[in-house]
Amino acid sequence: MKIVIVASIQFTYEIEKITKKLERLGYKVEIPWAAKKILKGDIDYNDFMSIKEKRGDNEFRNKAEEDLIIRYYKLIKKGDAILVLNYDKKGIKNYIGGNALIEMSFAHILSKPIYLINPIPEMIYTDEIKAMKPILINGDLSKIK
Amino acid sequence: MNIAIMGSSAFVKEMVEHKDKLERLGHKVSLHEHYIAQANGEMQDLINRMGHEHAKVKKEFDYIRLHYNDIEKNDAILVLNLDRKGIKNYIGANTFLEIGFAHVLGKKIFLLNKMPAMDYLKDEIEAIEPIALNGDLSKIK
């Protein structure tokens, strides 16, 4: 079973930890392009975060070999499920950003199960998140089936 | 061109108006039947339910998938990003997802107005680079 991790690049090191745990459970795992580059040492985490904060992340996206939104759509299509790492961010509990929201919608229309590591956040698009019927695992990766 | 109109359900009347305008320009336009009915003052029950059980109604009709299927059949989408909730050129979450669908399906994306200053969608919309018409439908080519 292949799981595609959906998460903010801010959580690159959490993505790494969860990837290792999932691999130990026998899953194949796909992670975001920028997280992969940071973990390989091709991009510096602090540089990425500081540029994203000031100017957004499009200069990194432009360096990628392909459109990163389409890349993830294809990976989700080939995968069996997505796992959203919705950790607290920007003062919001269990935050889900715009990028994660789009990727969840890809999983939804491709009929792939959507697992959320934490409960559904209270945000302006809580109703859209609920409409995609995510499965809440409350941090317990063994609940992924 | 075959165009699907997208936008907040608060803009159903404007959607029908733009459907007519686009058809007069020779385009074939797709607009969800629920929007047309609501613009005609029908489906009051659904409109009321959307007010107090929004998520449930979205689940029940699976509007996210319906719009994806609609976009798949067309060449382009026109997003009616009109002012709403005090935000200029507002794009709600559902419409944001539809822009994402059009992008991965390789469809042209037209925004009726300029991009809104809304934090949650800024990076993605900039990456997708939709074409802002500034109200001029004749720019749709």
Number of strands of chain A: 5
For the biggest β-sheet of chain A, the strand order reads: 2-1-3-4-5
Helix content of chain B: 40-55%
Largest sheet of chain B: 5 strands, parallel
Contiguous helical run count of chain A? 7
Name given to the CATH architecture of chain A: 3-Layer(aba) Sandwich
CATH architecture of chain B: 3-Layer(aba) Sandwich
Structural class of chain B: alpha/beta
Give me the CATH fold name of chain B.
Answer: Rossmann fold
Summary of the model, kept short:
The complex is a heterodimer of chains A (145) and B (141). Chain A is of the alpha/beta class and 145 residues long.
Question: Could you explain the architecture of this structure?
Answer:
- The complex is a heterodimer of chains A (145) and B (141).
- Chain A is built from 7 helices and 5 strands; from the N terminus they run βαβααααβαβαβ.
- Chain A has 145 residues and is of the alpha/beta class.
- Chain A has a single domain, classed as 3-Layer(aba) Sandwich (Rossmann fold).
- In chain A, strands 2-1-3-4-5 form a 5-stranded parallel β-sheet, with helices on both faces.
- Chain A starts with a strand and ends in a 9-residue tail after the last strand.
- By secondary structure, chain B is α/β, with parallel strands linked by helices.
- Chain B has one domain: Rossmann fold (3-Layer(aba) Sandwich), CATH 3.40.50.450.
- Helices cover 47% and strands 13% of the residues of chain B.
- Chain B has a 5-stranded parallel β-sheet, with helices on both faces.
- In chain B, α6 links the parallel β3 and β4.
- The longest helix of chain B is centred in the N-terminal third of the chain and has 13 residues.
- The interface between A and B is medium-sized, with 27 and 26 residues.
